[in-house]
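Fig. S4 source data, part A: sequence.
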Amino acid sequence: MAGPTRFEEYSEKYKDLFLMTRSGGILEVRMHTRGGPLQFDWPVQTAYGHVWSDIGRDPENEVMILTGTGELWQIGNPEVWTTKFMDWPNSRKVEMYHESLRMIENMIYCIGIPTIGVINGTGSHWQLGTLCDITICAEGTAFFDAHTRAVYRLEMESSWHFKRY
């Protein structure tokens, strides 16, 4: 079993994807790509599973705030799909399956502190913000689900009742 992690180490390790600051036990994790909205690709998906594990093993973290950069939560990278999924080698499909599990499971099971998702705008992979204990969305936020190719908007400000468009 891995021991505690240190903020100074993992904040440096992930700085190209997640800018982190901590004050009084409150850890802010701001997703980004070169200072703009995070551009999702396969290395990002892999990093998610690892960063959640490292954050969860730091005993000095008391609350985590997850947010994006700019006016968008995350954006997709069209180059991710230059090869159709059906044409991928089976080993890569299995690897992606496990990375996807770690992205979600490690957020749920490895982070044992309160989490706040501050969804700063429309984008993809919004499930990470909604998996937080508390979720706050910028006004007018729409969620795009690449798996169903649907767009969802909140119908009421205080409810998680989605309407598909």
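Fig. S4 source data, part B ends here. Residues 12 and 19 are 9 Å apart (CA to CA).
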